[in-house]
Amino acid sequence: KCEVECLIKLFDTLVTASSDRFAAVGFDRNMFRDTLHSAFGMTDDMVMDRVFRTFDRDNDSCISVVEWVEGLSVFLRGTLEERIKYCFEVYDLNGDGYISREEMFQMLKNSLLKQPSEEDPDEGIKDLVDIALKKMDYDHDGKLSFADFEKAVRDENLLLEAFGPCLPDVK
Q1: Which of 115, 110, 114, 163 is nearest to 135 (CA)?
Q2: Which is nearest to 68 in space by CA: 80, 81, 58, 83?
Q3: Distance (Å, rounded) from C-alpha 12 to C-alpha 102?
Q4: Residue 150 C-beta-side C-alpha neighbours within 13 Å
Q5: pLDDT per residue over 91-127, tens digit each?
Q6: What average pLDDT values come out for the chain (171 residues) when binned by 10 residues?
Q7: Per UniProt, which keywords does this protein have (predicted)?
Q8: Residue 45, class by beta-carbon neighbours within 10 Å (0-12 exposed, 13-18 middle, 19+ buried)?
Q9: Is the pTM above the cut of 0.90?
C-alpha cells in the first residue's frame, strides 16, 4: 500500500511539474521518456517508445495514474512470468503475437553500439538474429511466438532482454 501511494505521489508530482496539455490526465510520450531517462537511465529511443506503448494499455497516447502504477509494478517488481510477458510485448513491434526476424533485426540494430571500422554492421546483426533464432525458435517457424520466448527465457534468464534493455537494472 505504501509503495503504491508513493508511486501515485510521484505521478502527481511529475504531472504537476509538466506544463503539457496532457498534464490533467497523465504523461504524454515525451514526459514519460524523460522520466524513463532520468529515473532509470534509459537512452534508447526505440525501446523507450515501446515501453510507452506497453504501459499505455488503452492506446490513448497518455499514461494514466492506473497505467503508471500497473506498469511500474511489473517494471520494478514483476514476477518472472510478468516480466517475460512485458519484454515480449516490448519486442513485438507490430503487435501480431510474434517477434519476427525483422523485428529482432530492428531492435538489435538500434541497441548495439556502432563500430566505425565495420564494413557492413548489418551483417553482424543478421548473424546475431540467426543465433537468436537457433537458440529460441523451438517450433522452427522462423519467428518467436510467446511460447518460444517464454521457454527460452525460463531455460536461460539472461535471454529476457535479448533484444535490448527494457527493464531497469538492479540499482
Answers
A1: 163
A2: 58
A3: 39
A4: 12
A5: 999 999 999 999 999 999 887 766 666 567 788 899 9
A6: 92 78 73 90 90 95 94 94 97 96 93 68 90 96 97 95 88 66
A7: Calcium, Metal-binding, Repeat
A8: exposed
A9: no
